[in-house]
Amino acid sequence: MVLLHEEQQLVLESLDLCLQLQSSDIGVINDLAEPMDVILHRLAHGQLCLILDSKVISSKTGLVNLQNDAGIVHSICEDLNPQVLDDLEVMAPVSDLGSLLLQVLPDFALQPPVLGLLGSSLCPGRKAKDTINAARESLAKMIGGKPQDIIFTSGGTESNNLVIHSVVKHFHANQTSKGHAGGHHSPVEGAKPHFITSLVEHDSIRLPLEHLAEEQVAAVTFVPVSKVSGQAEVDDILAAVRPTTRLVTIMLANNETGVVMPVPEISQRIKALNQERVAAGLPPILMHTDAAQALGKQRVDVEDLGVDFLTIVGHKFYGPRIGALYVRGLGEFTPLYPMLFGGGQERNFRPGTENTPMIAGLGKAAELVTQNCEAYEAHMRDIRDYLEERLEAEFGQKRIHLNSQFPGTQRLPNTCNFSIRGPRLQGHEVLAQCRVLLASVGAACHSDHGDQPSPVLLNYGIPFDVARNALRLSVGRSTTRAEVDLVVQDLKQAVAQLENQA
């Protein structure tokens, strides 16, 4: 099959957009009629340098994890990926666990109409609509929800902000309607919605709430986490409830420690409390959880969690860097107010032309999680446990502090947050001496704190000097014990080098 010139250009532009590359970086990909895996295979053996300046991060397990100097394209996998290779000839072959975005691109390459506008009644628009609806169904199946309760967003930050925005808007809409009705619950002068959250939430929850509080638009209670369990305690959350409380937002699992929060128990208690509130003429409290870190590492079911809102983030489970928001009984039982106004896409809740290829990739990633979650979880737990065993064996149990271990508390199977005790062993200093390890000292989205320890770890009760030395390693679906051995030896030589400089 030979594509017409115009079709080739459309495919190149689509590939360019999806990979977020500059057109000059694409190189010479002239024959996109080949199956995508054949193209990748060919590029992997000599031409990939035209795209990525010869910079390849390989897990040596068949995954293609790529990053150029500017960081434009990087691995969607959270493997250790320890070895940086400049010789493209030795890169492992492509496997079906490579970029999910590239997995779905053959359809777009051979069928450019998929890229049509969703709102169009013409064939391209119908194809795009079918693609998006199929992805919506896959996401709903992954979390045990209904397709009509899924809204696509740009990512977790937008989803979290959309929930907070909606709760504020709904509070004031209710206050106004009650005032017009002249009932005994007329609006109170200066009344503000009250939010309850924890001190260890992601910045996309913490910062919007802090901003609303500073602007005196909302009141916020930040509940501390237990130094014993590492969790936000249910009783502390219930004790913070006020008549004006409208939302409790607690992450399902912490992104730095992997500690799993008691979201089902919190939801059950809030549900029981809501019966009393409704009887007293007060509106119910809504429940939100940011499930970004947990998806793909453990089963997530909205019915078991009992939440009204759930945030979904694609790149956390090997999908493209977009997201979605689950809203129970969207528009009927749970309010959602748009932050944007435009063409009416996503039933007017999130207008803007849909990013069909990215959404298709997100749907494919969700399918794989639904099919394989237990296997992923078991493998990651085995490798994570082996990593912690090797760290303690090489450095000694007294020198290794496992920051993410709290007795009796469930944690994600992939996350290892630890500190190597020592006066010159701050996390960023150790990483600077590593030769093959690429990792972060905390949350990857804001890991530039220098000598300052993570506020999240300090809120967990980790001592300052220990928290300052913290490193976070996340193993992935394909991480091997051999890679763990390589990383531990790399850390060992880095520590020895720093101590010799003292």
Automatic annotation (TrEMBL):
Its main location: cytoplasm. Belongs to the class-V pyridoxal-phosphate-dependent aminotransferase family. It is found in: Cytoplasm, Cytosol. Keywords: Cytoplasm, Lyase, Pyridoxal phosphate, Transferase. Residues 126-486 form the Aminotransferase class V domain. This is Selenocysteine lyase. One of its GO terms (cellular component) is cytosol. Its EC number is 4.4.1.16. Homodimer. Pfam families: Aminotran_5. It comes from the Eukaryota. Its cofactor is pyridoxal 5'-phosphate. The gene is SCLY. Catalyzes the decomposition of L-selenocysteine to L-alanine and elemental selenium. GO terms for molecular function: selenocysteine lyase activity; transferase activity.
